[in-house]
């Protein structure tokens, strides 16, 4: 994603998007809600398609952060459990 240039079009606040590649060069587009004000790209059929997003990061990163958080939580819980088991076996506690 690149820098956003604020502006006004028909009384609606917009951000001009660089590299429209034939698509509308601003966000939000006429069919988008007002909160979709960030220019972003998404991958579709081996081509990066420009679009408007509600967040200034790629949309696919949000589920990736959530999944990685669960994986990290799993490893932390496993490590705590593993240390507890080793400690109990070292002292002969069942």
Automatic annotation (TrEMBL):
Keyword set, alphabetical order: Membrane, Transmembrane, Transmembrane helix
Membrane spanning residue stretches: 61-83
Stated name of the protein: Uncharacterized protein
């Amino acid at each position: 994603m690149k820098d956003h240039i604020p502006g006004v079009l028909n009384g609606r606040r917009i951000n001009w998007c660089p590299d429209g590649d034939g698509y509308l060069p601003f966000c939000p587009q006429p069919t988008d809600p007002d909160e979709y004000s960030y220019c972003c790209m998404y991958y579709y059929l081996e081509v990066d398609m420009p679009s408007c997003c509600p967040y200034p990061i790629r949309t696919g990163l949000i589920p990736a952060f959530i999944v990685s958080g669960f994986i990290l939580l799993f490893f932390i819980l496993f490590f705590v459990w593993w240390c507890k088991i080793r400690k109990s076996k070292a002292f002969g506690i069942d």
